[in-house]
Amino acid sequence: MTKCLFLLALCLLPFVALSSTFSSHNPIELPTATVSPKFLDLHKAKSTSTLSDDPVVHTILYSPVTPDETYRMGNTDGGVLGGYIYLGKAPNSDSPCPDAPFKYNGEGGTSHSAIRLIPYKNIGKPPSIHENQDFNIQFTEYNSGCSNYTTWKVEEQHGATIKGVSLVSTKGGTIGQVDSSWFRLKSYSSEYATGYQLLWCPGPILCPACTSDVCHLAWMVLVEGMRMQIAGVVTTDVTADYYPLVVGFENP
What we know:
This protein is mainly beta. It has one domain (45-250): Trefoil (Acidic Fibroblast Growth Factor, subunit A), CATH 2.80.10.50. Helices cover 10% and strands 29% of the residues. The strands form two sheets. Strands 1, 2, 3, 4, 7, 8, 9, 10, 11, 12, 13, 14 and 15 form a 13-stranded antiparallel sheet that branches. The protein has a two-stranded antiparallel ribbon with strand order 5-6. The longest helix has 24 residues, at 2-25. It starts with a helix and ends with a strand.
């Protein structure tokens, strides 16, 4: 009996030693808000994307998103890429007001700013926002005296501050007019996130017959170390880190 116990102890000894080594020299590193997010390629992810005219719905309540209400818009990824969109100061900006949309990334300060989706034409009674419908985006929360810095507008490529990227600012554009930027939403579901892809489109004034196939995917682009600014276009010669944007809508 004593001999059997001795042999059993010898067999268990390597497992005890391995366990001790793993816990003391190889601790498990849990992700935190300060860990740099890894690039997720939407084109390689297992996903489904649909072109329909269905109503856009609230992330939690599943009620229709309407042009009369304000919402928090955020990236629906459940990891470090998740977070709400807020109005902040663009890098190297000389503007007197916050002038660009960012996805909150734990950098401190405001974590979200309410927005409205303002369609070119209303659909339904009462009206609600639908997929593949043209709309402008406007922040409804802003500093006093900064009401002219609320409407989303994609920068011209030749004036881009980062090569290969057309960032979104709030420095211009008129709601419902040709000089503003027009967006659409398209259902999207993958192993990373479920919600809506935000598309930057030519708009109903310049191209009333354009389908969503000619639109550009919006992205999040890393600026100033850890801030994530929203971009309307990312081209193949981009020089910055960029990440997929799949949005959802919640109460402000």
